Amino acid sequence: MSNSKGQTDMDRRAFIAKTAGAAAATLVAPGVFLHAVAADQEQAVTDRVRWGMLVDTGKCADGCTACVDACTTENGLPNHGRPATDPTWIRKVRVRDNFTGKETNLPLMCQHCEHPPCVDVCPTGASFKRADGIVMVDRHICIGCRYCMMACPYKARSFIHEDIEIKPTNAPRGKGCVESCNLCVHRLDNGQAMTACAEACANAGHNAIVFGDLKDPGSPVSQALQQLPSRQIRADLQLNTGVRYSGV
Q: Which of 47, 60, 125, 148 is placed for a possible disulfide with 118 were both Cys, Cβ 3.0 to 4.6 Å?
C-alpha cells in the first residue's frame, strides 16, 4: 500500500513538473497572463546557419506591395498615412543605373550585415547581431538615441514616435525605441523556414524573394545564388550583407 502511494506521488510530481515546463500561459494577476515557450522547444542560436535572402528584381512586379503589406500585418505596424513617422520595416524603392538608365523596382529592408554599422555605433548594446546573422534591437535597453538610424546606409530603421495600440506577442514594440526587419525571427525560432514577405511574394505568384540558410549549399537561397548573378547594395562598404539582389 505504501509503495503504491509512493509511486503515485512520484508520478504526480513528474506530471506537475512536465506540465509546468510546457505551459503555454500562466496567470500572474487577474487578467494578466505570462506566456512561456515549452522548455523542449528551446534551442541555442548558433553560427552553423546564416539566414539571408536573394531578391530577384526581374520578378518584382511594378506596383505590387504584397511583401510590404505582409510585413505590416505580421508585425502589427500601424499605417497612419504619415510616411515620415510611420514605422516601415520593408519598403519598395525604384533605383536607376546612371550608366544605362535602367530603372528597377526592389524591396529594401535591413540588410543583416556581417559587419553592421548600427551595432558599432550603439552606446548601450541594444543593436546586436545574433550568431545566425540576424541583426536586431533589444528594446529593453534601447534609449532611442537613433545613432543606429544615422549609421545605417540603407535607411532601414524606424523610430517609434507614438503609443503602440497593436501589440502582437511575436513582435514586441514600444514608444521611444528603434526597430527594423528581423527576418521574422519569431518564425525561425519556432521552426518555420520562410519570412512573411517571402511567403506573400510566393502567394502573389511572383517568387521574387528566396529565403534560407546561406551556409547550406542545398538551401533554396544558396541554389538561387549559384544560378543567378547577384550583388550587394553598397558593396563598396564591405559589410557582407545577408540580403543580395539579382538584376540590379
A: 148
**Three-state SS across 87-147?**
CCCEEEEEEECCCCCCEEEEEEECCCCCCCHHHHHCCCCCEEECCCCCEEECCCCCCCCCH
CATH label, 51-246, candidates 1.10.357.10, 2.60.40.420, 3.30.70.20, 3.40.50.460: 3.30.70.20
Closest C-alpha to 89, from 188, 168, 197: 197
Compute CA 11 distance to the chain's CA centroid, rounded to the nearest angstrom.
Answer: 41
Question: What does the pLDDT look like over 143-185, one tens digit per residue?
Answer: 999 999 999 999 999 999 888 877 778 878 889 999 999 999 9
In whole angstroms, give the CA distance from residue 119 to residue 244: 20
Q: What is the dihedral of CA 200, 246, 97, 147, to 10 degrees?
A: 70
Of 222, 191, 221, 193, nearest to 208 by C-alpha is 221
Please choose, from the candidates 119, 70, 115, the residue with its C-alpha nearest in 3D space to the C-alpha of residue 92: 70
